[in-house]
C-alpha cells in the first residue's frame, strides 16, 4: 500500500528541551550590560519566531500553510539506502541516508527559512535580513522570502562571496540582495574593516552585520542555526526519517550528522533521542575548525559584535576566524546549546575529520551513489564509512542512518580546490 | 484557598525609608509572601529594571544585615531572600546561618538547578539543615522529569519563571508553558517573570498557577510615581488574584 507523502510529513515540530537530561542554561545578558540583548530580540526577530524560541513545549503544531509549503518544496525528503556503498565497503552494516539535498535550495536550511518567513509575513514584515557562509542558508532565505513576497538582504562571508559566485547568482535570481561581509553598510562592518581592511569575513561578523542592518532599517532578522527555534523547525527531518524507517521495518543503531551550528544534526537526531531510538549518536565537526576538541563549554555570544544574548555552548570564541584556505565548510565558532549539553553529558559523541579525510569520503560516496555531497555532509559520510568498517571488523549487522544535509553541486569550486591541493 | 501574591522588593530600594514604606504597603496591600532581592555581583537572569535597582542600592547599602533584620522585625508574612548562589558559595554556611538567626523564612537561588545542577541536592539539604526553607526556581528550560523531582522538595511553593529574564516582555504563551508542567508539579506553583500584564496573569491562573510573583512592575512604578504608586499596584494585583 502506498503511503501518502502527507502522512509522512509531521504535523508537529519536536522540541527536545523538556526531554534533556539536565536544565538547558538559558540565554542571558552579560554582566554590566549597557543594553539588554534579550530585550533587543524583540526588535530583531519576528514575534512568533521569538515566541517559539521561548515557549518550550515538547510538540508545537506546524501551521497548515507551512505544511503545504513543505509539501510544495518536496517534503518528505527521501530516505535512501546506500546499497552500493555497503558493497564497496564490504560491510555487514546497512546504511541509510536522509537526503536533505533534495529540496530546491539543496540543503536542509529551507526547513526553518520557510516558517520564519511565513511568520514574518503574517506580522506585516516586508524585508528580511540574514548572513550566510557557504550560501546554503542565504539561498534558503532568499527563496523563502520570495515565496512570501518579501525582500531579502544577505550578508555573505567575503571569502565565500568570492569563491561561490554561483550561490550568489541563485540568491540574486530569487531576488535577494547579496553583500560581501565585512561591508561598509554597518557600523560593525566598518569597525572590522578599519582594524583589518583585508579581513576575510566570518559567520560571526556577517551575523552581526545582518542584525545591525535589520535593526537600523526596522527589517527582521532570520536565524539559521544555533538558537533552539531553528532546531525545532528542523525536527521534520528526524520525524520523517523515523516513519520512513518504520515503513521499511528497520530499527536504527547508529545516527550520524555533521555540525556547523548544529541545526541539521539536531533536527535529524533529536526526535530519535526523544523517542529513545538508536544506541549511538555521532556529531561530526571539522578538524580545521576544532570546536569539539579545542572549544570551551561556556557562555559566549553567537555573533561577533555581541548583539544577541549570550548562550552556553561549546565555542572557539565569538571572534574566531577560520583558516581561509580550508574548503570543507562547518566554519561556525560554536555549537547549539542543546547539542553542546548533550555532548557534555556524553549522550552524543563527537568526531572531527580533516579536509583530506572528508574529501576522500566525498569521492567514495560520489563514486558509489552518484550524489555529489556538500563538503559539510562529507564529514558525516566519513564517520559513516568508519562505523561501517568497524561493523565489518566486528561482524555486526548495524543499521547506520545519517543525514545527507545537502548536495555539493554548487560547491564544485571547493572540490576543485581540494583536488588541486590534495591530489598529487 | 485564595491565590498567592508573592511581592518582590530589592533590599533598600530606592532608599531606606521608602523601601520600608513599600514593604509595609506590600503586606497591607494583600501580599502573602515577600521576596527580598539582595544585590548580587551578576544578576544573571534579571532584566534592565531590576539590574538598575541593584545598582542604585549598591551605591549606598554596604551592610545588608541591619536592614534585613529591620525588614524581618516589621513584616509578619513569610520572607524569602532572593540572591544568586554563585556570590555566596565561599561563605555559604555563614550566610545561611545569619539568615536563620534573624528569622528569615527561606531562600531562593535562581541559579541553583541551572548552574549547580550536579550538586543541587547537597545545597538544598544545607539550606534545610540551617532551618531555612528552600524555594526552588525552575523555568521552561528545565526538563520535565527534573521539574517533577524538584517540585516535591521545594518548600512553600515551586517557582516557575516563564521568561528568560525578569521584566522583559518576551512574547511567550504563558498558558501553554503552565499546561506543560502543571501535572508534573506536586506543590503550589507560583509563576513569575514579566507577568505584570493582567491578561497574562489571568491566563496563568486559569492554566493552574497557584500564585503570581511580581517584581519589575513595582520598581517601574516607584521610578515613575514613587512608592505609593507601587503600593497601589499591589492592591490592584491582589484584586485580580481575588477574581479566582
TrEMBL record, chain A:
Q: Does the keyword Amino-acid biosynthesis apply?
A: yes
This entry carries the following GO cellular component terms, namely: cytoplasm
Residues covered by the Tryptophan synthase beta chain-like PALP domain: 74-406
| Gene Ontology terms for molecular function | L-serine hydro-lyase (adding indole, L-tryptophan-forming) activity; pyridoxal phosphate binding; tryptophan synthase activity
Q: Which SUPFAM superfamilies does the UniProt entry name for this protein?
A: Tryptophan synthase beta subunit-like PLP-dependent enzymes
Top-level taxon in the UniProt lineage: Archaea
Coiled-coil ranges per UniProt? none
Q: Does the keyword Amino-acid biosynthesis apply?
A: yes
Q: Which reaction does it catalyse?
A: (1S,2R)-1-C-(indol-3-yl)glycerol 3-phosphate + L-serine = D-glyceraldehyde 3-phosphate + L-tryptophan + H2O
What role does it play?
The beta subunit is responsible for the synthesis of L-tryptophan from indole and L-serine.
Which HAMAP family would you find in this protein's record? Trp_synth_beta (MF_00133)
The record describes its quaternary structure and partners as: Tetramer of two alpha and two beta chains.
For this entry, the protein name equals: Tryptophan synthase beta chain
TrEMBL record, chain B:
Q: Which enzyme class, named as a word?
A: lyase
Q: What keyword terms does UniProt attach to this protein? A: Amino-acid biosynthesis, Aromatic amino acid biosynthesis, Lyase, Tryptophan biosynthesis
Active site annotated at which positions?
Answer: 35 (proton acceptor), 46 (proton acceptor)
Pathway assigned to this chain's UniProt record: Amino-acid biosynthesis; L-tryptophan biosynthesis; L-tryptophan from chorismate: step 5/5
- Top-level division of the source organism's lineage: Archaea
Instruction: Tell me how this protein assembles.
Output: Tetramer of two alpha and two beta chains.
- What job does the chain carry out? The alpha subunit is responsible for the aldol cleavage of indoleglycerol phosphate to indole and glyceraldehyde 3-phosphate.
Q: What is this protein called?
A: Tryptophan synthase alpha chain
